[in-house]
Amino acid sequence: MHSAEHRLSIIMPVLNESAGVADALQALQPLRAEGVQIIVVDGGSTDETVTLAAPLADLVVQSGAGRGRQMNAGASQATGDALLFLHADTHLPAQADQLILDALGKGANWGRFDVSIAGSLRGLGMVAAMMNWRSRLTGIATGDQGIFVRRDLFWQIGGFPVIPLMEDIVLSASLRKHRWPACLMQHVTTSGRRWQKHGLWRTIFKMWQLRLRFYFGADPERLAREYGYAASR
Questions:
Q1: Which residues does residue 33 pair with via DSSP β-bridges, in sequence order?
Q2: Which residues form the Glycosyltransferase 2-like domain (predicted)?
Q3: Residue 188 CB: number of other CB atoms within 10 A?
Q4: What is the DSSP letter of 177?
Q5: What residues does 6 pair with on adjacent strands?
Q6: What confidence tens digit (pLDDT) does each residue in 128-144 have?
Q7: CA separation (Å) from 167 to 36, 61, 111, 164?
Q8: Closest CA to 141 of 194, 87, 93
């Protein structure tokens, strides 16, 4: 196991994730045993998230709410040469650490995985395929795809923007100026709960509408509220 310095640090932002955080972190314990640093960044949970996460992480960091702010706070404590930003409802493929390090060793500066969406709703496979195809075509990744990046490049571009929505899109656009992402074909699996709750086509339409409005300068706070996030996120 590596000591103070790590080759890879995984940063997981959480907020009131007591229902699933233990399972999410338990799945990362084989990587932790191999020397991967696990950092959980709590955005002010009012449930048992922190208590459940503490024994399963190397660090639990407190931060103001908002994924961008939380992930920056985690990155500031990371000792890994590479950073992987992982949502609490997203699960990695086998040997994810080696897949990332191999990609970076072959000259990539950053990248992401293909994604699968868990759930019984018909059409989720099509949505995931569209996400993966769009990402390859545009060089833009979403947080659900498990974005990874060299630590020095992450800070060179200023980290995540502290905005309540689309922080992953802005980060990808900044990273893309340096190099096209490594698009790994192995799949992370993310929760389909938003599609299940709101319906497939309604969710697709809402996401594209919000992204288009953001591109044309709409206020991220307002878009976040419409998406279902509190303004502080």
A1: none
A2: 9-119
A3: 20
A4: T
A5: 80
A6: 999 999 999 999 999 99
A7: 25, 20, 16, 7
A8: 87
The 8-class DSSP code of residue 156 comes to H
Q: How far, rounded to the nearest angstrom, does the alpha carbon of residue 47 sit from its chain's CA centroid?
A: 22
Pick the CATH number of 6-194 from 3.90.550.10, 3.40.50.2300, 3.40.50.720, 3.90.1200.10: 3.90.550.10
Q: N- to C-terminal Cα distance for the chain?
A: 35
Q: CA-CA distances (angstroms) from residue 224 to 150, 165, 169, 195, 197?
A: 28, 6, 14, 17, 17
Nearest to 129 by CA among 114, 145, 146: 114
Tell the residue number behind the tokens 């990587």, with chain if given: 31
- What is the tens place of the pLDDT at every residue in 172-208? 999 999 999 999 999 999 988 777 777 877 777 777 7
Task: Give the C-alpha separation, 115 to 119, whole Å.
Answer: 13
The Cβ of residue 67 has, within 10 Å, a number of other Cβ atoms equal to 24
d(CA 233, CA 230): 6
- Of 2, 7, 14, 161, whose CA–CA distance to 89 is shortest? 14
Q: Report whether 185 contacts 114 (CB < 8 A).
A: yes
High-pLDDT (> 90) share of the chain, %: 75
Average pLDDT over residues 106-111: 97
Which token pair is 100?
A: 């990332």
